[in-house]
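Aim 2 progress. For Acetyl-coenzyme A synthetase, the working sequence is reproduced below.
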Amino acid sequence: MTDSNSGQIDHVLIEDRLFPPPAEFTKTAVFSTQEQYETMCNQAAEDSDNFWRGEANEHLHWFEPFKEVCKWNPPHAEWFVGGKTNASYNCLDRNIEAGLGDRIAILWEGEPGDQRTLTYSDLRTEVCKCAEGMKQLGIGAGDVVSIYMPMTPELAIAMLACARIGAVHSVIFAGFSAESIADRNNDAGAKLVITADGLYRRGRVLPLKATVDEALEKSPTVNHCLVLRRVGNEDVSMVEPRDVWWHDVVDPQPGELPAKPMDSEASLFILYTSGSTGKPKGIRHTTAGYNLWAKRTFQWVFDHREDDIYWCTADCGWITGHSYIVYGPLSAGATCLMYEGAPNFPAEDRFWELVEKHKVTILYTAPTAIRAFIKWGDEHVEKHDLSSLRLLGTVGEGINPEAWMWYHKKIGAERCPIVDTWWQTETGGIMMSPLPGITATKPGSCTRPLPGVIPAIVDETGKEVDDQHGGMLCIAKPWPGMLRGIWGDDDRFVQQYWSTVPGKYLTGDNARKDSDGYYWIMGRIDDVINVSGHRLSTIEVESALVSHEAVCEAAVVGRPDALKGQAIAAFVSVRDREPNEELRKELLLHVRKQIGALAQPDDLRFTATLPKTRSGKIMRRLLRDIASGKEIAGDTSTLEDLSVLAKLQEDE
Ligand code: WTA
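Predicted structure tokens for this construct:
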């Protein structure tokens, strides 16, 4: 962990290029002056109740008004206490009543190229049918429904249908194993699983239902399985009376079902995410606060306008899909492109083909994807007209300045602001990000907090550190979108997030604030390494490696070293060069040159690809184990490709 005595290395992530917002953009932006932002931040900080009362009254529909804005019994917060609202109502009925019934809500394209468009009215009809169907399967308010589906409109429909009747959805990314599904079903006590006969991935069909069948053998709480026919898989086994088809149970329903007024603090969903231990935790979000946070952060950060075609490339199996495909944009009446498949099928230009075809104006994707595009080559981008784009976003990990610059130049044609959005499953929505009309950006910085977010960077004793000095990033005050708990494990919630620094939410990330008040996320607390008394962020070393033209991707971890405390181990994938001794030396020298001798990796291994979770995060825990020669321990159920691990181990 970083502290004020940690040596010089805290400050090396220096990036002094500054990209002011284009004047054209600022003219019509939601935030068009710095004063507007400052005023809102001040109001939200100093008169929080009034600020959020106004926001909630204006931007959500209330069946019954709330009586209290925020009840804060640390670490338990309740927002908009006593009120009743419904997230599906806010996403659908509210827009339809405002005259947007014929606006396209979801513009969908399947991997094989099939297309569908659903207006807000169409979407409400489908949601009502699904909700009615679920009711007939015995699902009501408070029941947990697991959703294990391809990225079809029915995935969003199922989520909103749960919200409509007060059921709690638990979306499980459709790449997880049967074991993981069963664990989640059991932890949450799920009564229904919604799935499909299969999904398309790079032209192949993955048999989702077969995986669910295996999970259901170990899921005693589940009474029914509702199955969408997506791929026409003939081999699906339907176990009666447990399993029913979507087209039998959902399609014949009338398509009108009033949204159930829900308490502000009723659980809206659970989403499982990996913690510092091997066992995923069910992050619990509630109705009103989450809905408001998702909607307002969407409007602020993406500067949403009526004629935008917005595309978030995430999967609904992750929080980004929850907040920025479903609840945020739909509450705001946006038109969302939704794509089912892989970015490189049938070819590496699929994303750019989609942007051109659908005239996408806002694109929100992940640095890992951007790095893949760089690797695949600019020719795939250059084939397409991307002039519809006006705003770009990234999420999920820090973006290295090289990837940022490529995104800026190749995709944004130096015309589109980039919003590097920092947030977490737990925060419900974006916490820090540039506001595209007013924030001058620096490649690699998520810049400043949104109104209502009060960050604090603290040392091990919980004391706030001086600006410039890195430390643990905490959030000092509750915000509407914050997690309300870990499903069924309040002790873990308290222990994990609120015990290290009493009274503050511990994000688990390290951060540094520069002299302009910009925040730089320096990696997870457990990614910080201490080499000969110098504290280093692994991201810094990775960034240095990736800035070498031969490096595609790099992951850096610490391993125990008798002399230095920790030594630096680097895993590197390269392009256009032989991974040989000469290149190894060149890269070590490159890091020395970029950061200094103390940051030079002790080990540098070449690898074809890096082991990643299915959400695209590099599995550092695994790399640390490999680097230190340990037996591989813990949950590796999210490994994208076990052969990667096997390959690395062979090289031991
Ligand atoms: C990391 C994803 C740097 C961070 C929304 C955080 C980032 C974790 C950024 C949460 C960013 C996410 N810059 N790091 N813009 N965005 N992270 O829960 O370490 O999947 O704590 O939520 O991703 O990941 P999660």
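The CA atoms of residues 271 and 585 lie 44 Å apart. This observation will guide construct design in the next reporting period.
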